[in-house]
Amino acid sequence: MTVTHATGLAAAAEAHPVRRITQHDLDWALAEGWRDFRAMRGDIVVIALLYPVIGFAAAAVTIDNRLLPVFFPLVAGVSILGPAAASGFYELARRREAGLDASWIHFLDPFRGPNRYSLEILTGCFVILFFLWLAAASTIAAVTVGYGPAVGVVGAAAFIHRVLYTPEGWTMILLGNLVGFLFAVVTLVLGLVSFPMVVDGAADPWTAVLTSIRAVRKNPTVTEYWGLRVAGLLALGCLPAFIGLAIVLPVLGYATWHLYTRLVERTAGVSNEPIAMVATERTPAWRIQWSPRK
Questions:
Q1: Distance from C-alpha of 230 to C-alpha of 85, rounded to nearest angstrom
Q2: Of the candidates 24, 52, 155, 248, which lies 20 to 30 Å from 257 by C-alpha distance?
Q3: Domain count along the chain
């Protein structure tokens, strides 16, 4: 049964051909993302400002000295949830591309439309990945400098001194960045096109993830450049007290949609409006939701 299911998933993934792209496609996707932002900024700025609020909330939470060691992991970990949080931007870009109304009232359509269960499953997987990252970061802090939520912190000044001026602190920095890099690679590989595919109604979550992996395997170097661009833009967005994320995240969300349209051949005849689905007793809920819009 397991072998048959795995074979079926592989066959479903192969049904979505993946193209080979170049850095010019990355430039094009970012340019299109910027055009989308300029065209729809009046509708999405309010939504985009929620991301700086999240950053400030992370800072407020870590005022408690016991949580200080996870401040940076919390902020950095937002990138793990980025592909899921950007689902609304994928939808707006999709609607604008199709000539449909792309106002902000459609931002949450992916989470209440016919593909919501598939999107929720995929989002849940990335939430688990986020908490695994926090657990790993907390463990590294506790093992190296002896601080963490379970251990407690003497004070912010003492913690910062321990991190920057002791061998244990530099060990924590090196290990933390190495493990963080691995989590970032996993996020990039699994989320490169999976969320846009689900929002597009083109695949179930598992097929979307397999297609994302195939896209990375076919374009390893270009994917690396894309990851570096995303990391650089996110870093720039965080510098002015997270305010820059109000611009960076929407642009990246729109650009990711356009990158998906270059990477994956979309289902022929796909329309842009949800269709009524008919369930049977043997039809899994997530299968009902992802059926392509004919």
A1: 15
A2: 52
A3: 1
- In sequence order, what are the residues at sequence separation of 6 or more whose Cβ sits closer than 8 angstroms to the Cβ of residue 18? 211, 214, 215, 218, 263, 264, 265
> Within a 13 Å sphere around the CA of 187, how many CA atoms are in the beta-carbon half?
28
Distance CA 275, CA 291 (A): 9
pLDDT tens track for 103-151: 888 888 888 878 889 999 999 999 999 999 999 998 898 888 876 555 5
Is residue 64 included in any domain, yes or no? yes
CA 220/CA 20 separation, integer angstroms = 10
**pTM over the 0.70 mark:** yes
H-helix or E-strand containing 167? helix 167-191
The CB-side HSE value for 173 (13 A sphere, CA atoms) comes to 12
**Is 112 domain-assigned?**
yes
Residue 3 lies in a domain: no
Q: Three-class SS of residue 62?
A: coil
Q: What is d(CA 116, CA 153) in angstroms, rounded to the nearest whole number?
A: 42
Indicate whether 2 belongs to any domain: no
pLDDT of 233 higher than 80: yes
